[in-house]
Structures are given as structure tokens and as C-alpha cells.
Amino acid sequence: MGKNYKHIQMTLPGHALGAKVLSTKRNPNGDITYALQHWKKLMKDSGTLDILKDKKEFQKKSVTRRRQLQKAIYISSIQDND
Question: In this structure, is residue 52 part of a structural domain?
Fold first, then answer.
């Protein structure tokens, strides 16, 4: 079974962030490690892990607004220099 075919078979219809454990000739019970790698990559690409890490600690709205403003100022200064 090729890696690309395995990737296609692991997707669950209707579940954007799901991974199915596939059984192969080598692992008739299923290869859980590959399914976990696939799931972790999906979580990282979707940005859900970043959101969860940000929600670990409470942040005041003023702090988030200040960071957004500083980021916008930084980006505009970079664009002005070019």
C-alpha cells in the first residue's frame, strides 16, 4: 500500500479532523502510530492546537487588542520600508 493511497484511505468522510486506523498485511490489527501522525498533522495544519494553547491562560481583551495593534504597526512598517 503506497503512502499516498494510505493517506486517502485514512480520511473519514464528514469528519475534517479525523483519522482512521488501517489494517495492512504487516499489521492486521491496524497501525495506530501512522494514524496518530496523520491526526497530529491535521490538527497542526488546521490551527486547532494553537487555539487550544492560547486558551490555556486567560488574557484580557486589552492585552489581545494591544498585541494586534503592535502586530499591525510592525507589518505596516515593513511594507513602508519596501
Answer: no
